Write the structure tokens for this entry.
Amino acid sequence: MQIGVLALQGAFYEHIKMLKALNVEAFEIRQKKDLDKPMDGIILPGGESTTMYKLLTDLDMFEVIKKEIQAGLPVFGTCAGLLLLAKKVNNHTSSYIQTMDIVAKKNAYGRQLGSFNTTGNFAGIDNMPFVFIRAPFIESVGKNVEVLSVIDNMIVAAKEDNQLATAFHPELTDDLRIHKYFIEMVRQYNKKAI
Ligand code: GLN
């Protein structure tokens, strides 16, 4: 299995470390030709969504990634990656990749509370460490979206078919379970594709 990690900006290296710890092969996507490599799944990391979107557009990678996701490529977006996937970002004018039926709010916790650590439930698993850094949250989800985590009445993780999104950063913890969950999604998808 090969997972491509978008490496234009932000916390991409940490995702690669998590994948290596799970014995999954990973490579950095830095330019359009990297998208030609065989890829079973893609990770859109945290960082700054507007900057990432601009780079994706400038490097002519945006449409290819969008089409692949629409065609079913498993994708995991963390934080800024969640914003890239959201169909709508309520307090922001640009639109991003927009493949996932969620409405998100950027920098949703305000300046003061922007970054914090807590623990919560993810897909029925308790005591998961959650690291939030100027995080968004999900304001509402479409009918095919499964809510995976809620903290203080706010949705912070969700899944829709081949798309997984978390408002927090599992790659900044030493807990591999959410990456494992994504790898399992990739396996399921590949089984279907055969
Ligand atoms: N606030 C960032 C954005 O709007 C996301 C923060 C993050 O990825 N840690 O894109």
About this structure: The CA atoms of residues 57 and 68 lie 15 Å apart. The chain has a mean pLDDT of 94.
